[in-house]
Structure formats: C-alpha cells, structure tokens
Specification:
The chain is an alpha+beta fold and 265 residues long. The chain folds into 2 domains: 2-104, Pseudouridine synthase I, catalytic domain, N-terminal subdomain (Alpha-Beta Plaits, 2-Layer Sandwich), CATH 3.30.70; 107-239, Pseudouridine synthase I, catalytic domain, C-terminal subdomain (Alpha-Beta Plaits). Helices cover 19% and strands 28% of the residues. The protein has 5 helices and 10 strands. The protein has helices at residues 27-39, 72-80, 137-144, 195-207, 215-222; strands at residues 2-10, 46-47, 56-66, 87-95, 107-116, 129-131, 149-152, 167-178, 181-188, 237-243. Strands 1, 2, 3, 4, 5, 6, 7, 8, 9 and 10 form a 10-stranded mixed β-sheet that branches. The protein is globular, with a radius of gyration of 19 Å.
Length: 265
C-alpha cells in the first residue's frame, strides 16, 4: 500500500457538504466513487477540513492509501474522467505513510466573498454572499483586527461544534474591496464549526452600522454564542489553502490564483 495526497477544488452548490452521507450527495461520496472507478478497488479518503453544504474549495487536500500503481498525472486525469464538472482533482502526489491530510496541516486559509450591491447579480449567485445595504469597509477592517492572535472563539462557534477546545489562533486577516465585491481572508491554525460564517455575520452587522467597531472585541470577551450575530450564508465561503511543514508537499495547494482575480470590477 502506498499513500497519495490529492489537491481538490469544488463548487459546493450541488453538494451537501464534504462528509459522506447515506444519500451519497456529498463531495467525499462523489470523489470516492470516482477513485474506485479509476482504481477498480474501494478507496477511503481523509480530508484536511470538512466543509458544509454549499461551501466551496480551491485548495482542499485529501489523502488515501491504495495498492494500485499509477503515475501522479494518471491519477489526476483518470479520476477527473469520473468526476462531475463541479469537482476536480488539481494535483496528485505520493507522500510518506506518516502524512495525514488533517493532522499534518499547520494552517488553513479561507476567503469569504461578499457582493455589496443594490441588486443581486446572477453571475455571483451561490458564489458570493449578498448584502444590498452599503457596507463601511473601514469599520469592518478596524473591528476585525481584534480577531488576530490566539483567542477563545466560543462566541463564534456553532452549538453543534464538536471541537474539544474553542481556542484558535488567527495569524493573518485582510479585507479588500474590489468594485462591488469585498474579500475577507483569514488564515489560522484551525477553525471551529461555522466560525468563519459567524465572523462574517458580525462584520456585516458592523459594516451596516448596527454594531460598533468594538463589537468583535466584546464578543470575544463574552465567550457566548447567543450574543453573536446570525450565521451568515455559506454561498461566499471558500477553503482556499491548506499549509503543511516545508518539504511535505511539492505541489501548489491552490489553483495558482486568488479569488480577487475572478472579480469583474
């Protein structure tokens, strides 16, 4: 048996999240069906970070063990031939048997795309969260600085979150406006269930002027999810990159471009 890692991108709209379900309508279900069709044996995958229904990925990473000997390019082309157009293998790489897509990861990066437009835009339907009221991006940026560093994110975790600890570290955060699109990007060691969407919900409240710039800091101090903003739509959430120790993977984790490059102005 040898272990391989794959880089996966997908449009989350047709799927009920990443994790396998009895109805078979998840990204993992579709990927494992394609792997089994190509390898002619059952294959079980482990991912770097489970995504919810309608959440997208540019840089998901999975690993699996298989005794079938194929070239890395053959894995990419062969598995993609059995995948629907909403899911694609971007790269394949043989890795050591100690590599683990989830536990070997040192950081994960997410970007949330907000469409701030008076009317909805069909080209971004399901690909961006929509807010029709004008947003104060400067106030959002100022408030977001409180998220940097290590914190107890209890006010931003789902009631269904199964993580043992609510403490997480956000090492990078940026908010960039490009025309009617606002890109909120975060990098951290790990994220709690619904953590990014709950952060976006709070930032939108601030951008709309419903909450002050102190709102984020206050929520961190309260450690109480019931005081937080509503969980925002999954439509604009993208898992953009998973990082590993230097030398672990030689492949690019993402598609080679940022979501901002997709903006139409």
């Amino acid at each position: 048996m040898s272990r391989l890692a794959l880089g996966i991108s997908y449009d989350g709209r047709p799927w009920q999240g990443w994790q396998k379900q009895p109805n078979g309508q998840t990204v993992q279900d579709a990927l494992e069906r394609a792997l089994a069709a190509f390898a002619t044996v059952p294959v079980q995958t482990t991912c770097a970070g489970r995504t919810d229904t309608a959440v997208h990925a540019l840089g998901q990473v999975v690993h699996f063990d298989c005794a079938i000997n194929r070239s890395e390019e053959s894995w990419v082309r062969g598995v993609n031939a059995h995948l629907p157009e909403s899911i694609s293998v971007q790269w394949a790489q043989a890795v050591s048997d100690t590599f683990h897509a989830r536990f070997s990861a040192t950081a994960r990066a997410y970007t949330y795309v907000l469409l701030n437009s008076r009317v909805r835009q069909p080209l971004w339907a399901g690909r961006a969260g929509w807010v029709f009221q004008p947003l104060d991006v400067l106030a959002m940026t100022q408030a977001a600085q409180s998220l940097l560093g290590q914190h107890d994110f209890s006010s931003f975790r789902s009631s269904q979150c199964q993580a043992k600890s609510p403490v997480r570290t956000i090492s990078e955060l940026s908010i960039v406006q490009k025309g009617c699109l606002i890109f909120v990007s975060l990098r951290g060691n790990a994220f709690l269930h619904h953590m990014v969407r709950n952060i976006i919900g709070a930032l939108v409240q601030i951008g709309q002027g419903r909450e002050s710039v102190k709102y984020i800091a206050d929520l961190l101090e309260l450690k109480d999810r019931t005081k937080g903003a509503p969980t925002f739509s999954p439509d604009g959430l993208y898992l953009t990159e998973v990082s590993y120790p230097a030398g672990t993977l030689s492949q690019q984790h993402g598609l080679g471009f940022g979501l901002q490059d997709l903006a139409l102005g």
